[in-house]
Amino acid sequence: MTKEELGKLIKEAALLKGEFTLRSGRKSNYYFDKYLFETRPDVLAPLTKELAKLLPPLDSFQRLAGPELGAVALVTALSLETKKPFIIVRKEEKLHGTSKMMEGEIFKGEKVVLIEDILTTAGAAIASADKLKHSDIEVVMMIGVLDREEGAKEAIAAAGYAFKSLFTKSMLGI
What we know:
This protein is an alpha/beta fold. The chain has a single domain (43-168), classed as 3-Layer(aba) Sandwich (Rossmann fold). It contains six helices and eight strands; from the N terminus they run H-E-E-H-H-E-H-E-E-E-H-E-H-E. The protein has a six-stranded mixed β-sheet with strand order 5-4-3-6-7-8, with helices on both faces.
């Protein structure tokens, strides 16, 4: 499947029209429901192969990271594709058991690539990257499936992180 065919498939599977409030609080007349493409093997498999092409050299980082809950399927599939272990970054500290902010094995000083799904302002992605940074984990890059072109790229750059997006709103003709 070509990247263009994949973009069309994602758009057909997950683009909803109507009135929506985004995580950022912004109003939008369209919404990409990530679960409508992340839960479909016919979309997730080729998506994973395309995301893998955006990764820096595999020897330049130790792990992948994905914020809960939206990026967990993506980072799991990418881990299987690349054989790189991954961690899950929690939105909030777990209040029971180990009280961790991150799940999975990770060591101070390691380098990770953060995988995200849909980015509007990148608030959640930056918050996850900052949690990693404060735990002495270096985020060498953030990779998103879709940049809605509403400030995410600029916010990520302003926060000091590198960023690549597989698709943009413009690329999908929205």
